[in-house]
């Protein structure tokens, strides 16, 4: 079909049978627009296949309308047998405006815009794109205009880029009202791209034209500023909004309250809530709920409950969200009776969220009989359990190692037509892997994929860990390949699992190769990684002295990377030196761990006992205890004499 429509032999010409009497000028006459070429051009926002696969009659109809309009508008299309259209920037812009002015059909102009770009074989200029954007907005096709604006932003980065777009939009506008809308959309696009600084600069430029964004765009920018913790800029912009005559309302102030609360600054958030009345704004339930939710997350439940009472006193209607937040807070800290009291006092009929709160608490406590009863009560009340409800029940049964009942709830969930989430399958896979039931784990993993769910890195790591613990290293590495093929990048946990599996099989050198790959891929090995490798080197039965030297090198490499060793790693190294009778290096490590605030324990003491035994010292137990006391006193720590 493409060959039928376009001929690309040095010229961009349309097939005579398909588009009668209209031809394009050769490519070499076209004006270069200064934008880089590539696959991610404006056509990325256009379905090329649908454009060129339309039936010929539809194409004929569109182009016939275009031909008639252009003729009526005075375009000289040449002779009967060979119409030619010069697709220069000026002509494209003029044709787009003529088509829309004559037909008031933005879709027709967009058709020509797409066709001409495909015909030219290069992207339109910024001016042409801006012209098309104005037409789309005039024709109520704002969603298409947004696509083109986002494309312009992606290809015009930096200070010069946004400024150029701003100017070209102004140069190509014909109607003030449309210009105001387009500028507002442009600001919104930069907000969507998390470029709030550019959005603010644009608004400053717009002010010189006596244009200011609508309240919806301003709210989006405020929200973005607050989410990025730019509170001062947000307040400055709020003042600017007021100076432009945009009235403040509860939803705007709620954004600031949410911003303060998300930073843990609840006092300021509450103060702002109380001062809303001085701004002539009545606080609504949303503003109160933001503070309540933040208090509940900090387990300040008495304060949250008191706000509920204050709301009723002030005549603010309590909704299910505000009350449910407090109920959930009490459930999470194990105060189910208080949660029930809140429901009763504020006369809230339990909803799915409330039931989930109670079920979650019971499952966390391992009280599955009571959890199952509450789950049943919820169903009998006519409430339909959601994915969270079922997943919580499964997690509870998995916690008490009752995988059979967990799988029963999966069956109930599927029977009701509720789709499990990736998290649902992952927790079941984990519960199957722990006792070594890899066959069931593999089945669940494959079922997840069959149902169209995309396993995440946690899902892959969970199954991989099961393989590693069973010693199925080949399957673990096959899963790694599958993971990469699916576009899921391994994380530090993935590498730690592989390293641990290799170490378990005594493949220390192979584990170190994985460490090298980890570093090459830009990961910073953590304490777990080094503990696995160092511990593996120490447990390896070959060349003890050589292994200790390598372990020591790795240990200092870890310290150089800025990581802090934990008690497990210190004890592994101390035990390694002591197994060789190297008490001096072992004691140096004990001194180092105390200096870094890590206290020796019984395992440290037993390691030193082993070291003194290797040195054939009399009374090694007492000698080890005395040495530990000496090292602790060196740092002003009184040792407990309880050995």
From TrEMBL:
Q: Where are the PPR repeats?
A: 249-283, 284-318, 351-385, 386-420, 421-455, 456-490, 491-525, 566-600
What are the protein's UniProt keywords? Repeat
Query: Key word Metal-binding present in the record?
Result: no
Which InterPro entries is this protein grouped with? PPR_rpt, TPR-like_helical_dom_sf
Q: Name one Pfam family in it.
A: PPR_1
What is the similarity comment for this entry? Belongs to the PPR family. P subfamily.
Protein name, please?
Pentatricopeptide repeat-containing protein
By which gene is this protein encoded?
A: VvCHDp000803_1
């Amino acid at each position: 079909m493409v060959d039928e429509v376009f001929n690309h032999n040095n010229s961009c010409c349309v097939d005579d049978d398909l588009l009668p009497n209209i031809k394009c000028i050769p490519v070499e006459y076209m004006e270069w627009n200064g934008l880089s070429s590539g696959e991610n051009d404006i056509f990325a926002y256009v379905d090329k296949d649908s454009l060129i696969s339309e039936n010929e009659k539809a194409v004929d109809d569109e182009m016939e309308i275009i031909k008639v309009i252009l003729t009526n508008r005075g375009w000289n299309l040449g002779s009967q047998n060979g119409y030619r259209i010069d697709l220069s920037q000026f002509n494209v812009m003029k044709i787009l405006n003529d088509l829309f002015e004559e037909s008031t059909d933005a879709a027709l102009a967009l058709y020509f815009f797409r066709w001409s770009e495909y015909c030219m074989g290069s992207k339109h200029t910024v001016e042409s794109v801006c012209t098309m954007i104005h037409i789309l907005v005039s024709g109520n096709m704002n969603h298409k205009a947004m696509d083109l604006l986002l494309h312009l932003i992606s290809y015009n980065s930096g200070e010069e880029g946004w400024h150029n777009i701003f100017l070209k939009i102004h140069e190509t506008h014909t109607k003030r009202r449309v210009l105001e809308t387009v500028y507002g959309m442009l600001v919104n696009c930069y907000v969507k791209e998390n470029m709030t600084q550019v959005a603010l600069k644009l608004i400053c430029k717009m002010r010189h034209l006596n244009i200011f964004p609508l309240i919806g765009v301003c709210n989006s920018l405020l929200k973005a500023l607050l989410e990025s913790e730019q509170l001062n800029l947000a307040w400055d912009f709020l003042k600017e909004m007021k100076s432009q005559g945009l009235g403040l309302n509860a939803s705007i102030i709620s954004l600031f309250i949410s911003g303060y609360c998300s930073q843990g600054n609840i006092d300021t958030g509450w103060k702002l809530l109380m001062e809303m009345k001085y701004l002539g704004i009545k606080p609504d339930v949303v503003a109160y709920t933001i503070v309540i939710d933040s208090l509940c997350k900090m387990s300040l439940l008495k304060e949250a409950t008191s706000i509920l009472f204050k709301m009723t006193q002030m005549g603010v209607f309590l909704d299910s969200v505000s009350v449910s937040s407090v109920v959930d807070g009490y459930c999470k800290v194990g105060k189910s009776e208080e949660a029930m009291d809140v429901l009763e006092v504020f006369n809230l009929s339990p909803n799915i969220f409330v039931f989930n709160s109670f079920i979650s608490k019971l499952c966390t406590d391992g009280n599955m009989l009571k959890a199952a009863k509450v789950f049943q009560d919820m169903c009998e009340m006519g409430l339909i359990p959601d994915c969270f409800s079922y997943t919580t029940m499964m997690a509870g049964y998995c916690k008490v190692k009752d995988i059979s009942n967990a799988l029963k709830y999966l069956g109930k969930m599927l029977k009701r037509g509720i789709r499990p989430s990736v998290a649902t399958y992952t927790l079941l896979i984990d519960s199957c892997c722990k006792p070594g039931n890899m066959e069931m784990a593999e089945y669940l993993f494959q079922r997840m994929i069959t149902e169209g769910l995309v396993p995440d890195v946690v899902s892959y790591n969970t199954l991989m860990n099961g393989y590693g613990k069973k010693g199925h290293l080949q399957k673990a590495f096959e899963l790694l390949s599958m993971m990469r093929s699916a576009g899921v990048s391994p994380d530090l946990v993935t590498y730690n699992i592989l390293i641990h599996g290799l170490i378990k099989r005594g493949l220390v050198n192979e584990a170190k190769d994985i460490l090298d790959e980890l570093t090459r891929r830009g990961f910073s090995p953590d304490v777990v990684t080094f503990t696995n490798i160092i511990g593996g080197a120490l447990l390896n039965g070959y060349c003890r002295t050589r292994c200790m030297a390598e372990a020591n090198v790795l240990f200092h490499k870890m310290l150089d990377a800025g990581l802090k060793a934990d008690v497990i790693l210190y004890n592994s190294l101390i035990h390694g030196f002591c197994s060789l009778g190297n008490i001096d290096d072992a004691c140096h490590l004990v001194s180092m761990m105390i200096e870094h605030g890590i206290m020796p324990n019984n395992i440290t003491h037993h390691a030193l006992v082993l070291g003194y035994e290797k040195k054939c010292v009399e009374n090694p137990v007492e000698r080890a205890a005395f040495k530990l006391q000496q090292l602790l006193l060196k740092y002003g720590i009184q040792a407990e004499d309880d050995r």
